[in-house]
Write a structure and sequence with these properties.
By secondary structure, the chain is α/β, with parallel strands linked by helices. The protein folds into 2 domains: 3-164, no CATH class; 204-367 and 404-570, Rossmann fold (3-Layer(aba) Sandwich), CATH 3.40.50. Helix content is 45%, strand content 12%. It is built from 19 helices and 17 strands. The chain has helices at residues 3-25, 29-47, 53-75, 96-99, 101-122, 128-144, 155-163, 167-182, 251-257, 279-298, 310-324, 354-367, 372-381, 384-397, 406-411, 419-431, 470-477, 517-523, 532-540; strands spanning 204-209, 213-218, 224-226, 230-233, 262-267, 303-308, 330-336, 369-370, 417-418, 442-443, 446-447, 457-462, 483-488, 506-509, 525-528, 546-548, 562-563. Strand 12 (457-462), helix 17 (470-477) and strand 13 (483-488) form a beta-alpha-beta unit. Helix 1 packs antiparallel against helix 2 and helix 12 (354-367) packs antiparallel against helix 16 (419-431). It is globular, with a radius of gyration of 26 Å. The two termini are 49 Å apart.
Amino acid sequence: MDSKDTNTAQEFFTAMNAEAHKVMELFAGKVGEEYLDNLNSAWGQLLSRPTDPQGWLDAVTEYQRSQMQFWAGILTGGKAVEAAPQPGDRRFAAEEWSESPVFNYIKESYLIASNMLNKMVSSVNLDEKSQQKLEFYTQQYIDAMSPTNFAATNPEVIQQAVETKGQSLIDGLQNLLGDMEKGRISMTDEEAFVLGENIATTEGAVVFENELLQLIQYKPLTEKVNERPTLIVPPCINKFYILDLQPGNSFVKYAVEQGQTVFLVSWVNASPEQSNLSWDDYVGNGVLEALEAVKSISGSNKVNTVAWCVGGTILASALAVLSARKDTSVASATFLTTLTDFAEPGDLGVFIDKEQIEQLLKKVHSEGVLNGRNLSTTFNMLRSNDLIWSYVVNNYLKGQAPAPFDILYWNSDPTNLPASMYDFYIRNMYLDNALAQPGKLTVCGESVDLTKIKVPCYFLSCIEDHIAPWKSTFTGSENFSNCEFVLGASGHIAGVINPASKNRRNYWTGGDSGKGADHWLETAERQEGSWWPHWSGWLKKRGGKQVEAPSALGNETHPVIEPAPGRYVAKRLD
C-alpha cells in the first residue's frame, strides 16, 4: 500500500470515527473513548505497515460485485442478491427492513460494507494478538455504525414516531437524559426490585463478618439435612444474589430445598480506602476464615464448597493452600464456569497484553479500585448488539421503558475490586497463567500446585460462555486429579442459572477425559433439562449422613448479626 492510499484510507477512517465517537459517548463515556482509541491504534498499525494488497483487492472487488448484483436485481425488477445478517442477529428482523425498498437498500449496503471491512482485516498478516485486537475493535465499530442505531435510518423508529405523533421520541429523550444523569444505560426497571423483598429473599442471617466479607447462613427447609454443610463462594466482581434471585430461579433456595445447610460469602464492595486488600486476603481472610466459621457453626469438620467464576479461581487457590498444609477441611469442590488455566481466555484476550494492562493498572492504582462500572461495560461490549445497542434503540429511539428482569437488575449492580487484589489477579492469571504452573505462585505463604488437590471436583462449564470459554475451563479441570466435568447449554449466566423446575436446555456428561475438549464432547452423552439435579445427586454422595436440621442460625461464637441479605450487598456504586 503506497503513502497516498494510506493517507486516503486514514482520512476516511478518521472521518467515520468522529461519528462513532458521538454514538459511543451516549452510553460509555470514557470507556467508549478507550475502545475507540484502541480501534484507532489497531487500524493505525495496519495502515502503517507493508501489507499484501491482494487481500484488500479481493475484499474491494467482492464489495463492488455485491453492490452491482444488488443494483442489477433492483433495476431489472428481479430479486436482488441479498447479504444476510449473521445467525442470531435480530437487528433487521422487522418486515420493514425487507419490504421497503429504501430501508432494504440501507440494510443491504450496511451488510455489504460490513462484510468488506471484515474481509479486509481478516486478510492481513499481523501477529495473532494484534490480529485479534484489530478484528474485535473493527467489529465494535461496525456494530456502532449500524443503521438500526440511528433514528433517521431505522424504519421501526420512524413508524413508531409517526404513530405516537412524536411522543416516542420525547419519551426516548427523557430516558436518555435520565441515563446520562445515572451515568449508565438502563437495561431493566431498577425500581421494580428491592433486595430482601422480591430479590435475594431466601431466609437467612449474617453470622460472621470481617472487613472483606459477610457470611450468610440460610434457614433449613427440610427436617433432615446433610451432615456436611455447603459453603458458596460467589465471584467478587459481582454481587452474590445472582445465585439468589427470585424464588423461582434461586440456586441458593434450590440447594436448601435439597437438604443442604447452606452458607454463602457476601464480598465487600471495595472502597478506595481498601485498595491494599490482596489476593492473599481474599484467600486467607476470605475463604479460609469462612470455612472455619462454617465448621464452628455446623459442628462438622468437613465442608462441601461451591464457587463461580473468579470465586472459583479464589477457591482453587485456597484448596492449594489447604493441600500444602495437609488440611482436609474441604470434602468436595464445585466450580461453576471457572478458569484455572488462562492460556486461552477467549474474547477477553483482546484486552490482555502488557501495554493495555499496564495502562489500566496505572489508573486502578491511582483510584484505589477497579471501577465496577467500567468492568461491566467491558463485559457488555463482548456482546454489544445484545447488551448495549438493543437498549439504545429501545430506550432512546423508541422511547420504551425497559421491562423488569432480575438478571439485568443484578447486571446493573456491579462491585469495585481493590487495586492490590486486581493487580495480582490480572498479572498472575491472565498475563502469566501462573496458577496452572505448579510452584509458580505463592499464596498465603504456600506454594500453589493444583495437581496436588485431591478433593472430588465438579466442573460445570457452558458451551456458549464468552467469559470463561468451556474448552479453557476443561483444560484447567484436567489439573485436578479427581474431577467430573459437565458441559451445560447457553452462556456464562443463563447456563448456570437454569432452574430444575423449568427443565429447560440440556447438558452433556460422561465424555472421555485425557484426549482434549473436542474428544470429550464427541464422546459425551447429551442430557435433557437442567444440570442442577445432576449436581445435587453428585453432592449428596459427599454430604455425609442425614441429621436433624439446626433449629437456630449461628452459635454462641458466631451469633446472628443481621438478617440476610446483609449490609455488604446493599452498597451500590450509584
